[in-house]
Amino acid sequence: MKKFIDKLIEGLLKLSGTVTGITVLLIIVFLFKEGSGLFQSSTVEKGYTLLVNSENPIDKLSPEELKHIFDGKIENWKQVGGRDEAIRIFRFDEIFSIYTDDELGEDYDLIPEKLGEVIHTNPGIIAYIPQKYAAKNSRGIKELIQEKIGLSDYFLGEEWLPTATPAPLFGILPLLFGTLLVSFIAILIAIPLGVGVAIYLAEIANERIRKLLKPAIELLAGIPSVVYGFFGLVVLAPIVQKTGNLDLGETAFTGSLILAIMALPTIISIAEDALRTTPKAMRDASLALGANKWQTIYKVVIPFASSGIAAAVVLGVGRAIGETMAVLMVTGNAAVIPHSMFESVRTIPATIAAELGEAPSGGTHYQALFLLGAVLFIITLTISIVAEIISSRKMIKE
Amino acid sequence: MIQTKKIKEQIAFSVFRLHGFMVLGVLLWILGFIIYNGIGVISWEFIFSAPTDGMTGGGIFPAIVGTFYLIIGSTLFAFPLGIMSAIYTVEYAKNNWLTKFIRIMTNNLASIPSIVFGLFGMTLFVNTLGFGDSILAGSLTLGLLILPVVIRTTEEALKAVPKTYRLGSTALGANKIQTIKRVVLPAAFPNIITGLILSIGRISGETAPILFTVAAYFLPQLPHSIFDQAMALPYHLYVLATSGTDIEAARPMAYGTALVLIVIVLLMNTLAGIIKKRFEKNK
Description:
Largest sheet of chain A: 4 strands, mixed
Strand order of the largest sheet of chain B: 1-2
Structural class of chain B: mainly alpha
Oligomer: heterodimer
Shape of chain A: elongated
Radius of gyration of chain B: 23 Å
């Protein structure tokens, strides 16, 4: 009986370990499961279709072309490879201004017929209407072929306009650039400061200062990201705006400043640990050869700890890339490819946080956001694996 | 020659010292700013009443209660699971494939951004398991987030228990489970508690994972069951700072909320420090 209970407990412990282990796999599976549907969806919003006159040689339009047509930037069919014919945009509501309710029939059952008439008589028309009002066999109209959203639309698309009609654009490049820009500048700021503090703590500071600085850094790590965001919004953004003479203080640079502060504790504590692993014998040898403390630090200790310091920096980058709330609050969130660091940008995590609440569950926008989550996951996973490889390479060399 | 060597050292050291004090300065700046602006807002009424006048008046009691529930819920989930995983990897399977797998996965789990946890919690707990936006779904999501912290601190705590304790117990005729229960766990307990306290600090500040799993903008009444939505402090601060009806008028409320959050974190860090110190002294 006792043996049985022992076995049972051991099994239970094993089970909890396994559950923990498979959580990461579960996360991957669920993100991709929710996101992968995107590439099975058509570019035009679900339940809607696009009709043109049957004389029109155009059979299909890309999401970008559709966007420019409906924005009014493309005004002639010639520009998308068709005949020289002005484009006439027809939105569904217009049917009610052309025909009276009586003409449209009881329960609007004559709408498909009347739509057919309108389209048939307008050679340059493009009509964006609900699928159910599209007349199936009526002569004189043609339905544009609905293409599926492609991998390149998503991964190489330069515009993120998830709520655009008739065809939302899900190009993640601006978000990817935004994320990388903000994190890159943040890490440029954080490296000298973080490594400097790590050297100070590990090599120079006396016990009294260490006892003051260590808890301070732990505290810095403990401050919630939303408080950092608030601080950035209320204090840093106005400062950036004033010193840079900008219209808005919420820029990529403001985000970088906050992220740099947030990445510091990670960089400092890991780099300090790395510096401390330098064997005493090596230091002693250096000192015995007449080098002073500083020469020992930068000729012996830092080279020895370099891979650990590199790992610290990489993990700092990981921390910066995944940070959500602080960045969401201070970068201004414009989803365009930034041209300078004093422009508003939007990062991947901030996009998810800002838009998921409004994206209808199961729709293309929702799927696109989950796929963004998967992209983010893969980026941070790669980073943590790289950090591991860097710090373990040292071990092999020894 | 010796002179320049010495001067170089002096310069380098002062630069690093400056770095150290800059970091300290940044911390003091943030803390000082929040405390200075928030302290005047804190009152009995602010802590114990609900928001009024479109979030520009009243207090933050519902958010405090919500965060409290989330702390309880996520620790109830993450602690048993995390401690048992750690016991398994440290005490039972020292070096088999499962241990390696668990360790790699725990490391990876720790590197996942919190917003990804939010997405995962939303699909698994809110939609697939049908918990809806609820304290349950939010607690489970936050629980996953702190799981790596719990496992790591517990593993370290268990490894710190001297081997002689285990041998002594075994020599007295105790079996493995008795040894773990009566000797190893009590000895490791203070360190495990330190992990618990630090995780509480983390839970009370996380916003991204609760955005889509539990957090409510405003609720007229306190949650009644684990299937209800709840307000939470960090989300409340986010709302106050960015999307209220009158952001300027809500500023004092935001400062007050930020201060309460900071105080919780400060409290947890100090508490963890005290326990750790006491434990180290006893050893």
